[in-house]
Amino acid sequence: MQKQPTIRDVAQAAGVSVAVVSRVLNPGSGPVAAATRTRVNEVMQSLGYHPRTAARELKFGPPTTLGLLLADVSNPFFARLADRVVQEAHARGIQVLLMTTQEDDHLEAERLATLIERRVSGIIATPTGNNQEIWKKLQALGTDVVFVDRSIPTLPEVDVVSIDNFESGRSATALLAAHGHRRIGIISGPATSTTGRDRIAGYREALEAAGLEQDELLIRSAAFRGAAGGDAASALLNLEDPPTALVVANTAQVTEVLKRLSHAGIAIPGAMSVIVFEDSPWTELMTPPLTIVRQPIDLLARHSVQLALANTSGRAPGNATVIRVSAELVERSSVARLQLAK
Question: Are the C-beta atoms of residues 100 and 225 closer than 8 Å to each other?
């Protein structure tokens, strides 16, 4: 793996002293011949050296900051994840620089450029799924990257920490089938995300195991931001043969779906049984309390921080580490048992 270049690497490649490079980086600090300044700048560009961090590097040594790049901290899942990552990093004497992308790949690229300039020790991120070349550049520079919650299949060399999304979608759907439901809908994340695809794949597996027909009209993908979950719920309710049960496998859209069901006068679980991927306290305070898929955020944070700091602890390069932790299906009162036809 290519390490991040240092000011000493620049000096050696340009055939000058570290003091000369420092003067180039700090105009007015001392004389530098024009030709020498040009040569030093060209070397910095070719090596991928980022000068804004030079002063900190010379004064303090290796960086002790993690970058945390999350999709949307207005999403309770990511807000709790950020809190736990900060706690885990603080316990190790590491600072965290938090940035968000709002699920926008252009913003993600801008944020990553900033993190490169800051020379963070590692980056924990929920990727949009794009910007593959930037992620590759980060790894080439020696920055340890960990994808949390999602991954990018075209970047198999990146460490990943997530819940077992396939099994989570399967177990939630299997519970509804075991309670007699034959028309089971699912609202998941975008089909472009590994999270959305894996949960739907688990849903399909449970239907097949239960001998149930797979109706594509019962499968809805919704963006992680906005109110698309509510629209997906309305589309399911308006079907000629609507579902009797629903898995809301998109945490960001849980409240939108529940609002739409409430506005439509749909009683839970009388008219619709519901399982949600959400673990906020209010899910237990609802009437009835909701059956949930609880995601182990503490474990996601702990494993992510450990992997992101692995290179600074001397981890040997090799195959990517993939950690999948099990979510917990917590049964409450939002799933009705239907009388099966004999």
Answer: no
Burial of 45 (0-12, 13-18, 19+ CB in 10 A): exposed
How many CA atoms, within 13 angstroms, populate the side-chain half-sphere of residue 218?
Answer: 21
Q: Which residue has the tokens 């030093």?
A: 40
The answer to the question of residue 153 being in a domain is yes
Count other C-beta atoms under 10 Å from residue 52's C-beta. Answer: 11
Span 115-156, pLDDT tens digits: 888 878 889 999 999 899 989 888 777 788 999 999 999 999
Tell me, yes or no, whether 216 and 158 share the same domain.
no
DSSP secondary structure letters along 51-64:
GGGHHHHHHH-S--
What is the extent of the structural domain holding 252?
165-295
Predicted TM-score (pTM) of the model is 0.79
The Cα–Cα gap between 15 and 11 comes to 6
3-class DSSP state of 177? helix
Q: How many domains does the chain have?
A: 3
Model confidence at 44, pLDDT cuts 50, 70, 90, reads: confident
Average pLDDT, the chain: 88
Alpha-carbon dihedral 218, 221, 224, 230, rounded to 10 degrees = -40
Sheet with 159-163, side-by-side order of all strands: 95-100, 65-70, 122-125, 144-148, 159-163, 322-325
Kindly tell me if the per-residue pLDDT of 320 is higher than 50: yes
Q: Note whether residue 304 is domain-resident.
A: yes
Residue where a domain stops, chosen among 295, 314, 336: 295
